[in-house]
Specification:
- The longest helix is centred in the middle third of the chain and has 6 residues, at 50-55.
- The chain starts with a strand and ends with a strand.
- The protein has one helix and seven strands; from the N terminus they run βββββαββ.
- The mean pLDDT is 86.
- The protein has one helix at residues 50-55; strands at 2-3, 9-16, 27-28, 38-41, 47-49, 58-59, 78-86.
- Helix content is 7%, strand content 34%.
- With 88 residues, the protein is mainly beta.
- The chain is elongated.
């Protein structure tokens, strides 16, 4: 993860080698964001506060945990980049 100096933008990389069967519910906790800023996250429809992303995290569970059933997190050797931008 890399965050801009003014904390208005960030890039987060997620990499998975092998998919687990019946994997637990997973979240990726971020760091270095401004807790007061509202962020948009690429590939997500909702907006998130920085504090929420740092304390609760971004959902990265797949269909084996009954989440993200759209097929976007399926298979082995998965990588995703999430682009975060401050919403004014």
């Amino acid at each position: 993860m890399i965050v801009s100096k003014d904390q208005s933008a960030a890039i987060v990389g997620y990499y998975r080698v092998l998919r687990q069967i019946n994997a637990p519910y997973r979240r990726l906790k971020l760091s270095g964001l401004n807790p007061e800023f509202m962020y948009s996250v690429s590939s997500k429809k909702d907006l998130f506060y920085g504090q929420e992303l740092m304390k609760v995290g971004l959902i990265i569970s797949d269909s084996s945990a009954s989440e993200n059933n759209d097929g976007s997190f399926e298979g082995d050797y998965l990588s995703r980049l999430f682009i975060l931008k401050k919403v004014d």
